[in-house]
Amino acid sequence: MSYVASPSVRSYAAQKGVDLARLARESGRETLAREDVDQAAAGMTPAPASVQDSASGVRTSHYWEVDHAAHGPVREEELPRFATLAAANLSAANAAIPQVTHHDCADMRAIESFRARLKPEAQVRGTKLTALAFHVAVLARCLRQFPRFNSSLSADGRQLILKEYVHIGIAVDTPHGLMVPVIRDAGDKGLWALAAEIADLAARAQTRKIRPEEMGGASMSISNLGGIGGNGFTPIVNPPEVAILGLTRTRTQPVHEDGSWVPVPMCPLDLSYDHRVVNGADAARFLSRYAALLGEPRRLLLC
């Protein structure tokens, strides 16, 4: 296999005792740099820059082949097939999409007060009205008001497919990997219905009882880490969606209001988006509207 290497890299390889022709052949790389020589000298063989999985058709990057046992005791754990496929798809998505994340936060005082007042009714209904139900309702409303976020880019990148439906994916952390069941027609459902469906999907995801038709087709997804913690993160856009909303734990922060500082529960919002479809100004307006709706939950009808 032919390869390209600068004179300095060839000289460096000779000093390290690395056969560049063999390195190019084993790695599949056409251009070799000092870093490749260092890896080879350390006993690591660089894998091809990308390999296409024959089953999924997804091109994914691979790690360096390393004999970890040479450095100390190790043990191996087989990854579940579901997690392996998800990892390949996310790697491909992250490599292909020019992703940007916009950060904001929302005042949750009205939501928490509203939930407290509805707690007796929630007990009667046997449904826990979580903050996530409000987030789903607000996201559905925003997707109607900002249709570009409720779209997908065609495979050739020449057309934008605008969706008339609003389906919201809910990322669920399970022992066998991340699952994203979808709430269909979320904008047509009230808070009680949303809360019940979220609880049902999350419970069935844990026991792998989600049906195939309950996965896929989301307009946009929510990745909620609020029950775990964190101040923010960068969720990866899951194509063919063009955006994803990340939520972390609501924290009480001092806010200057009417001449004094008051404690306010603030929820961090992290909106990752495909920059080929959405620009920064769009993202800022989207999250600004999202935060405003969370501040006025009375606008969301209960049913």
Provide a descriptive summary of the structure in words:
- The protein is elongated.
- Helix 6 crosses helix 8.
- With 303 residues, it is an alpha+beta fold.
- The protein has helices at 7-16, 20-27, 34-41, 81-96, 109-125, 131-145, 191-206, 280-294; strands at residues 51-52, 59-60, 99-107, 151-153, 160-162, 168-170, 172-174, 177-179, 182-183, 220-224, 243-247, 251-257, 260-274.
- Mean pLDDT is 87; it is low at 49-63.
- The chain is 35% helix and 20% strand.
Radius of gyration: 24 Å
Which word captures the global form?
A: elongated
Structural class: alpha+beta
| Share of β-strand residues | 15-25%
CATH-level-2 architecture of the largest domain:
2-Layer Sandwich
Order of helices and strands: HHHEEHEHHEEEEEEHEEEEH
Largest sheet: 7 strands, mixed
CATH topology of the largest domain: Chloramphenicol Acetyltransferase
Overall helicity: 25-40%
> How many structural units, i.e. domains?
2
> How would you state the average pLDDT, rounded?
87
